[in-house]
Amino acid sequence: MAFTVRLLLLISSLFLVLESLFAQTNSGKVDVGASLSATAGNSTSWLSPSGDFAFGFRQLENSDLFLLSTWYAKIPDRTIVWYANNGDSPAAVAKGSLLNLTADSGLVLTSPRGVQLWKSESISGVVAFGLLNDTGNFVLEDDNSESLWETFNNPTHTILPGQDIEKGGKLWSQQSETNFSKGRFQLRMRDDGDLVLTTINLPSEFANMPYYASHTTSDSNSSTAGRKLEFNSSGYMYVLRENGEKLTINEAETVSARSFYLRATLNFDGVFAQYSHPKNSTGNVSWSVVWSVPENICAMTVDSGLGVCGYNSICTIQDQRPTCACPTRYSLLDPNDPYGNCKPDFIQGCEEDELTVTKDLYEVQTLRNTDWPTSDYMQLKPSTAESCNQSCFEDCLCAVAIYRDESCWKKKLPLSNGRVDSGLKSQAFIKVKKGNLALVPQPPNPDDKKRKNQATLLRVGSALLGTSIFANVMLSAIVCMGFFFIYRKKHVRPNQNVLDSNLRSFSYEELKEATNGFNEELGKGAFGVVYKGILQIGSGVPVAVKKLNFVVQDSEKEFKTELSIIGQTHHKNLVRLVGYCDEGQERLLVYEFLSNGTLANFLFADAKPSWKQRIDIAYGVAKGLLYLHEECSTQIIHCDIKPQNILLDDYYNARIADFGLAKLLMMNQSQTQTAIRGTKGYVAPEWFRNLPITTKVDVYSFGVVLLEAICCRRSVDMENVSEERAILTDWVYDCYLEGDLDAIVDNEMEALHEKTKLERFVMVALWCIQEDLSLRPTMRKVVQMLEGVVEVHVPPCPSPYSRAG
User: Fold this and answer.
1) What is the pLDDT of residues 700-748, one digit of tens each?
2) Using CA atoms, how far apart are residues 176 and 90, in angstroms rounded to an integer?
3) Is residue 429 within 8 Å of 364, Cβ to Cβ?
């Protein structure tokens, strides 16, 4: 009996202990020293007292990465409302990463190897505990329960009831529904008191004019300016003015926060919307939209840059959501990004039109109530639909013409802010190449010109019959001389290669005038100085004019021969040469102007470009080099591949510059070696070993550029990184051996989301930078390996001799 009583007391005590532990676990309070681990199949988290919210690691969909985040714990889709991020990228981590709650730094996130990846910033005080409360706010507090840091003060894409956005505060959209990287849309409470929605010209933080504004700025009366955006616990959202007045953001009936979960999210497509979800739902109930702004995101116009859809795309509202589509004969640059840019599936432009023999090049596709309102370059009024169509058809600059209300707006690529709107009552005439025409322009046939000249002389001869004898004699002599010169020209032709390559010859004065006296310098390299110029053709054509530094004298024939080879190279990943000047001691080259500058400026700027952009650029460089090495009429070895010699067009496609200049300037090996040694980090070892220079020097340089694009840092950096990381090629190989791909991309979620591709690209780069040139692949094999159509084997150490011992 006594044993039974003791057993009952023991069970009762144990029950009280378990109840106490359960109460403590369910209080939302987290003690210093507590930790969470990113573990597949066991998504550890800390819960709020009600269990409505969870804070911890969420494994991302179709990925082996985990996101430190806060989410709704009781609904099926476990919607994320906050996540840790490092500026542009979310702090997505690998399996085995740890989150620790510390007294001095608060929340600290580390990789499986102990490298710090993220921490709660601006902690001024000693953390006593953490608390996830029932509002969804995770707070770090001191011994006096004063807040030291909280997620509500560091919002990402969502705000919850009870959360405010003060002046200077902002929300960022995601890049897509599944990609948590920084997107192109921002909600900001500006310092002037106005709540605005804007697009951002990534990778910078330059904000375009708002497409939505609350208009609560301070004019003559500063008390009416907005002070903050409030989302109160009852579910009302308004701008609170300095004088205490409230400007309601939306007049829709508010849903009760007692019965529904509420959130307001800036979606990846730029729509700011409030959502509701019943708390006691059964089954797979989804979120409902309570209200949203703007009402029609397709109708919003950005003063510069993109709308919700990419360049050359068309936005349509379906089921209150925007969808994007490419016009006929256009296709997505990235098939996996339906909201991205569209590109024409043909070559269009004045040069291409002039070089093509067939004049019946185009056909017109007509769309109703479609417009790209910010891409005009000319308006014709009055006009008819027929004359509008014809005007665009005959204009090599015109890609689309919009006819509405007796007006015609002619537009050129790229087209932005495209939308369908039934209220437009317009016609869009889209000019596209006919489907059966070759995409590559055809040069004029010299035999056609010869036959034309012969026919002309024969027509002149036939006219002799009706003239006097003296005139007949004179005209006969002229005809004979004409035939003589035609056939003499056939056998004794001066150097016509430059003319045959369709390059234009400029005088020095023309180029001096075009560059305003060589005033605006774009860049300087081993081959010369490049200046910005405007050719006075039509409304002005921007060009880049390169003044060559050194040219072997008395080499006019060789100069024009090599120039003709460059002029005959046409590829989408090469900068096009449009003309030249060969006058006295002056030798200049005229290139098309590319507005987005060099790859160096793009990669090494403060704002990090997206992983997708970087690998697309690297692939473009590879395709351009393959063309130079194997596909153009004469093999060209570039000899100086580096990010400064790779330019970016309007769509951020890679375009290789300065190809053919090494041979054009008739530099021997020692001269080239001297010129290129200044480009440290990109030079193949054979330059210094008196070995023959082959296409493999370009393969080596490409491997270095590929690593720079992957890591988004310079190949040699003695100032900003530790000594063991200063030489990029060595450091990447060490990381590869250790299996630490996360470090190579600085834990960038977008890159780690495609870990197989990342590893493949790193392996290809390591093969390219082998010191033994026989081990380096050709550019054709490089392209195939990047595409994944050829297996990439494990690369050996690139510098076995320098690492020996």
Assistant:
1) 999 999 999 999 999 988 777 777 788 899 999 999 998 899 999 988 8
2) 13
3) yes
- What is the C-alpha to C-alpha distance for residues 457 and 485, in angstroms, rounded to an integer? 12
pLDDT of residue 20: 36
What is the value of pTM for the model shown?
0.62
Number of domains comprising the chain? 4
To the question of whether residue 623 is assigned a binding role by annotation, the answer is: no
Spell out the SS3 assignment of 127-194: CCEEEECCCCCEEEECCCCCEEEEHHHCCCCEECCCEEEECCCEEEEECCCCCCCEEEEEEEECCCCC
CA dist., res. 780 & res. 630, Å (int): 8
Residue 353 appears among annotated catalytic residues: no
Of the three residues 575, 593, 611, the one that is the final residue of a domain is: 593
Answer yes or no: do 83 and 161 share one domain: yes
**355 occurs within a structural domain:** yes
Annotated active-site residue in 640, 658, 698, 742: 640
Token pair belonging to 21: 């532990």
User: Does one domain contain both 560 and 619?
Assistant: no
Provide the domain limits for residue 262: 27-184+237-294
CATH number at residue 385: 3.50.4.10
Instruction: Record the tokens describing residue 3, joined without a space.
Output: 């044993």
pLDDT in tens, 439-455: 333 334 444 444 444 44
586 and 664 fall within a common domain:
no
Rounded to an integer, what is the distance from CA 803 to the centroid of its chain? 37
Nearest to 68 by CA among 102, 51, 87, 45: 45
Element (H, E) at 108: strand 106-110
Q: Does 787 reside within a domain?
A: yes
Residue 163: which CATH number? Answer: 2.90.10.10
- Residue in the structure block whose two tokens are 């911890």: 56
pLDDT digits (tens, 9 = 90+) for 132-161: 999 999 999 999 999 999 999 999 999 999
> Considering only CA atoms, which of 396, 350, 341 is closest in space to residue 653?
341
Query: Side-chain half-sphere of 459: how many Cα atoms within 13 Å?
Result: 6
Contact 76, 63 (CB under 8 A): no
Structure tokens belonging to residue 340: 């991205």
Residue 149 burial by CB count (10 A; 0-12/13-18/19+): exposed, middle or buried?
buried
Whether 575 and 597 have beta carbons less than 8 Å apart is answered as no
DSSP state of 375: -
